[in-house]
Amino acid sequence: MKILIVEDEPALRELIQRSLEKERYVIEVASDFDTALDKIEVYDYDCILLDIMLPGGSGLDLLAQLKKLRKKENIIIISAKDSIEDKVLGLELGADDYLPKPFHLAELTARVKSVLRRKHRDGEHAITLGNVRLLPDAFQVWVNEMQLELSRKEYDILHYLMNRPNRMVNKNTLAESVWGDHIDQADNFDFIYAQIKNLRKKLKESAATIEIKSVYGFGYKLIEE
C-alpha cells in the first residue's frame, strides 16, 4: 500500500512517515503544492494525507484537481485550519476523513487503516480469495489452515493483487505501489519478476487455489482457479 504525505512541516512529516513505515506502508512525501501536484498527476496512491495550508497553494485545490483527474485515492485531510467551512468543502470535494492538528499518531494510523478497509474490503479486516486468507493487520497469509511464509516484498505484492482480484494490473503500477515512485528510474523489472516467480512457487507448493497470471506486454492478473 502506497501513501503520499503532503505536509510542509518537516518534523511532523518525518514523524508521520516513520510511524506509517512501521506499519509497512510505502511512503512518498511532498512539502509544497507544486511537488504534490506533480506527484498526483503522474502517480497513483492508495491514500493521501493532505494538509490544507501549503507553500504555493491550497490543499483544497489539490483535492479539486484529483476530482478533475478522476483519481480514486482515499484522502485524509490533516490540518491545523479547523473550520467547519473547510471541513465541509473538503468532504464535498471528495475527502474521506478530516483530522485536525494536533493529533495522536496512533489515531492517524487507525484512520488510514479504516479508509483502506472501506475502499478495498468493505470494512472487513481479512482479504479472502479461494482458500487464501490475508490478514493485513498481522501481515500474515494463510492457505487453508497453514500459514504461508513470505518475504516482505512477496507479501506486499500478494496484498496488492488480492485487493484487485481478476483485474489486469500494470507491472509499472505494481512496482510503484510496492517499491515507491522512484522505481521509474530503474533500468528493468528483473527484481519484480524474481519476486513474482518466488511467490508463484510458494502458492503452488501450498496448494493455493489462486494463481498469478502474466498478461503479455502489460503486467499481471490474480485469478481463482
Question: What is the topological layout?
Answer:
Blueprint: E1 2-6, H1 10-22, E2 26-30, H2 33-42, E3 47-50, E4 53-54, E5 57-58, H3 59-68, E6 74-79, H4 84-92, E7 97-100, H5 105-121, E8 127-129, E9 132-135, E10 140-143, E11 146-148, H6 152-162, E12 168-170, H7 171-179, H8 190-205, E13 210-215, E14 219-224
Parallel strand pairs: 1-2, 1-3, 3-6, 6-7
Antiparallel strand pairs: 4-5, 8-9, 9-10, 10-11, 12-14, 13-14
Helix pairs in contact: 2-3, 6-7, 6-8
> Helicity level, as a percent range?
40-55%
Q: Give the uncertain stretches in residue-range form.
A: none
Principal-axis shape equals globular
Q: What is the count of helical runs?
A: 8
SS-based structural class?
alpha/beta
CATH class division of the largest domain:
Alpha Beta
The third-level CATH topology of the largest domain is: Rossmann fold
Oligomer: single chain
- For CATH, the homologous superfamily of the largest domain is named as Response regulator
Strand content: 25-35%
Number of domains: 2
Mean pLDDT comes to 90
Biggest sheet architecture: 5 strands, parallel
Helix and strand run: EHEHEEEHEHEHEEEEHEHHEE
Q: Reading side by side through the largest sheet, how are the strands ordered?
A: 2-1-3-6-7
- The gyration radius over C-alpha positions equals 18 Å
Say how many strands there are: 14
CATH architecture of the largest domain: 3-Layer(aba) Sandwich
